[in-house]
């Protein structure tokens, strides 16, 4: 399973990349706005740090606008991926970009039908939002399981990015449910390698070691 970092924060990426855990990065307009920096500069810096796919989202809602933005963004770095919303215009733009060999990530997917449409249109990645579904009382992970079954059943090459990941359980369940990738907020990732019993264990080992050296 691959892990993407869901952040626009360059320092966070630099720190976590050292652990060998980062296969790519996803951003969205909210994450970029949080950084208060130039969009192109942020994406180019991230693309320079991470060799895997880096998603940069268009903000246009019409096909021509999406394609214009996509063609511009695609020139920023070789590993940039165009993120498009799951709309009729988004599907057309996805299809056109796929024909040109430009990689896409169709975002804001909340149903298996939407995921299937995006994969069929030629998306490289599809991003179902697990946490936002859970927020409205629908089990987000069921969507991951259903999408994986559909992609396998019909040999569709799109990869599922489990997005809107909020906790450790989401990451574990995304892995078990067949997501190819989980995109994880930089603030959440450190909690994945932490466990209170590990900390207690280290403390005990060191105390015993000290006792021995004092004896
Ligand atoms: C990633 O592609 C999504 O934009 C992101 O995971 C959304 O997460 P949120 O629902 O926590 O905003």
Automatic annotation (TrEMBL):
The keyword Amino-acid biosynthesis does not apply. GO terms for cellular component: cytoplasm. The keyword Hydrolase does not apply. The active site is at residue 83. GO terms for biological process: carbohydrate metabolic process; pentose-phosphate shunt. Pathway: Carbohydrate degradation; pentose phosphate pathway; D-glyceraldehyde 3-phosphate and beta-D-fructose 6-phosphate from D-ribose 5-phosphate and D-xylulose 5-phosphate (non-oxidative stage): step 2/3. It is found in: Cytoplasm. Keywords: Cytoplasm, Pentose shunt, Schiff base, Transferase. It is an enzyme of class 2 (transferase). One of its GO terms (molecular function) is aldehyde-lyase activity. Its EC number is 2.2.1.2. PROSITE patterns: TRANSALDOLASE_1, TRANSALDOLASE_2. It catalyses: D-sedoheptulose 7-phosphate + D-glyceraldehyde 3-phosphate = D-erythrose 4-phosphate + beta-D-fructose 6-phosphate. Pfam families: TAL_FSA. Belongs to the transaldolase family. Type 3B subfamily. Transaldolase is important for the balance of metabolites in the pentose-phosphate pathway. This is Probable transaldolase. It comes from Cohnella zeiphila. The gene is fsa.
